[in-house]
Design brief:
single chain; about 375 residues; mainly alpha; two-stranded antiparallel ribbon; about 0% strand; globular
Length: about 375
Amino acid sequence: MNGKKEIIIAGGAVGIISVLLVYFGNPANMGFCIACFLRDIAGGIGLHRADVVQYIRPEIIGLVLGAFFISLKNKEFQTKGGSSPFTRFILGIAVMIGALIFLGCPLRMVLRLGGGDLNALFGIAGFVAGIYVGVIFLNKGFSLKRSYNITKIEGYIFPAVNAGALILLIAAPAFIFFSEKGPGSMHAPIVISLAAGLIVGALAQKTRLCMVGGTRDMILFKDMYLLSGFIAILVFSFIGNFAFGFFKLGFAEQPIAHTDSLWNFLGMAVVGWGSVLLGGCPLRQLILSGEGNTDSVITVTGMLVGAAISHNFGLASSAAGVTSNGKVAVFICFVFLGIVSYWNSESLIKKSSSEGLSKADAE
């Protein structure tokens, strides 16, 4: 099993596992949602106090540990970092804000469509548009500069933190918050959720599964490898939802979703653009974190903080729609993405510098 067949099988497994997680208790169309689950974890450890989204999600722990164990087994674990850490941290915040405007990460976007939620079509359109803008800057020489090999202990810390989070989830001490209502109270049993995360983490590490990478590679290289996994998740989640009776076609009254098409588009445009600059979608950042990439750990930390900011400052959307604060935040994110893209694009900076020198010579 290799090549395209391997990633199609992995994508199919992710689609089916996602539907099974819903069957066992996760919110509808939310077998996996990196943004939503990180938001719940942020609430669970008290970074925000939105009492309906507080729970330490074992799926996230499983994704990291699954990638960690399989990368060790395959001798692919490599500790590295140091590539524009603070820029990556703020980009993580921006990506999370965009995701919580849409109410889902790129993976949940596909799962929502597989469950019949047509609002996801506008999210996909925005996601592709954002990736396209990011690719324009890649072609202009965008880079957050190289990372460096660092001591192995740095790479082990994040998996260890996740193992610690699992202990906290099981022990349930008083200082950890658990939702008693809303999406945070809806979850599959811990063992099932953890096992699902471990399997998907291993598959994603093995195949380099990435929601943003598929579209990016198709635009840049006409390469369908990663996009095949994207399509397989959609097809198999549709089959699973239909088989279990979860499929509900339409725009209105979809679970944990709103019908504001423009902001679904713009929210996922932020996610697509920001993810291209970071080199991978939120799922890919978790997998890279498990492989020892501390740049991705910084990004994931930014996403956790972004979730807290979104709920503490009223940026996150709800079934009622997008907030005024959220709309302002999306505009700020676009400005930030533009600045980061421009000032880290080598050909644009050289052009600007040469034009400045020519102007000075003329004077």
